[in-house]
Amino acid sequence: MVGASKVVEAALRLLKLQETGDRSRLGFFTLVGLTILLLAAIALSLAVGATGVNLWHVWQYVNGQGSSLALQERVVLEAVRLPRTALAMLVGAGLAVSGAMMQGLFRNPLADPGVVGVTSGAALFAVMGIVLGGGPLLAISSALGSHFLPFMAFLGGLLNTWLLYRIATSGGQTQTATLILSGIAVGAISAALMGVLIFVADDRQLRDITFWSLGSLSGASWARVLSVLPFVFMVVAITPSVARGLDALVLGDAAAFHMGIRVQRLKRLIVLAVAAACGATVAVAGSIGFVGIIVPHLLRMIIGPSHRFLLPASALGGAVLLLVADSVARTVVAPAELPLGIITALFGAPVFLMLLLARRGSGSVL
After folding, report:
1. CB within 8 A of 114, min separation 6: which ones?
2. Please, which residues have CB within 8 angstroms of residue 193's CB and are 6 or more apart in sequence?
3. What is the rounded CA–CA span in Å between residue 46 and residue 55?
4. Neighbour-count burial for 259-296, b at 16+ CB within 10 Å, e otherwise
5. End-to-end distance of the chain based on CA atoms, in angstroms?
6. What is the pLDDT of residues 309-324, one digit of tens each?
7. Residues 255 and 247 sit within 8 Å (Cβ to Cβ)
8. Residue 290, SS3?
9. Sign, Cα dihedral of 28, 347, 40, 9
10. pLDDT, tens only, 97-121
11. CA angle, residues 194, 196, 199, in degrees to nearest 5
């Protein structure tokens, strides 16, 4: 009861700060609240699953007292739960920060890496790596090892992002409606090419491709964590340096330039970082939709549009959402497991429709 009253008191304090317009304090308290939620989500992720682990035993393990745990619990924590929890945090943070950056870059809260086709490009090249990695691409696959699929997905995401940016940009101005519509078209082309690859794939490759289409963290390992870590770290690490530029872009490219922002350099940096993060996350977890659009938008409604707080809050919020969604996926039909992409779609699609209806009410959809 004491804990619940503190949560209610903290929520009321956040609402009061929002009403008084004190965005800095609101942003700070939101980051603190999300950090607490992240710790709770980590504990939940380590404890639940087909083999339950007592929360007290999780606490003992974290404090270096793992030797007192049963052998089965130690094996489950070390070999399964810890890498899976770390991977969920990285994937969620990478997708949500990428979404926040894309929305700031194109000045539209609906500009998500999945909506504009970046994710589909990454998935296409990842599937290409699965099907052709043992044939025409064998030399590259052997040279890159476990980094081969993240590299292929990064390459696909980068090419799609560059193509969409070139299509939607004319005279130095990026048209958001053109971007989203061309993203739909490029996504359809990517899906068609994936259909061709699926047609020529063998049974083993088909099973691997199914993993990409539904999204899952069931194959989590420390090797996968290390393969995606540099890409997600890169996109999170640049958030302090791009936050001011994204805030300035709200006023337009010309205004941002006169404020001292190197606009084209900023755009290239963000496009490269988003392609890297989305490509790597798609490579290790498959296509997981709606995280990049829902998390930044909900946080923007609480703390406002300033990217100084929105970007780090999105990283924390994305990690929390993926940890909770993965915990649900592992427990709702245990001992079987639902694909993670289904969970995020069931939550994200209705919220996405509500955002569309809300923007239609304001007279603008794109």
Report:
1. 120, 287, 289, 290, 292, 293
2. 124
3. 8
4. eebebeebbebbbbbbbbbbbbbbbbbbbbbbbbbbbb
5. 45
6. 999 999 999 999 999 9
7. no
8. coil
9. positive
10. 988 998 888 777 767 777 667 778 8
11. 110
Closest by CA to 131, choosing from 204, 240, 226, 228, is 204
Question: Would you state the structure tokens that stand for residue 249, as one six-digit string?
Answer: 């872009």
What pLDDT, on the 0 to 100 scale, is given for residue 18?
A: 52
Q: What is the pTM of this model?
A: 0.81
In the chain, the amino acid numbered 4 is A
Q: Are 107 and 126 in contact (CB under 8 A)?
A: no
Find the helix or strand (DSSP H, E) in which 224 lies.
helix 222-237
Question: Are residues 246 and 105 in contact, defined by beta-carbon separation less than 8 angstroms?
Answer: yes
Rounded Cα distance, 313 and 300, in Å:
9
Torsion, CA 166, CA 127, CA 293, CA 266, rounded to 10: -40
Residue count of the chain, please give it. 366
Q: What does the DSSP 8-state code read for residue 218? A: T
Backbone angles phi, psi at 63, to 5 degrees: -90, 15
User: Cα torsion for 248, 253, 256, 260, to the nearest 10°?
Assistant: 140
Tell me, what amino acid is at 248? Answer: A
User: pLDDT digit string (tens) for 21-42?
Assistant: 566 778 788 899 999 999 999 9
Residue 125 tokens, joined:
């090249």
| Both tokens assigned to 327 | 């915990």
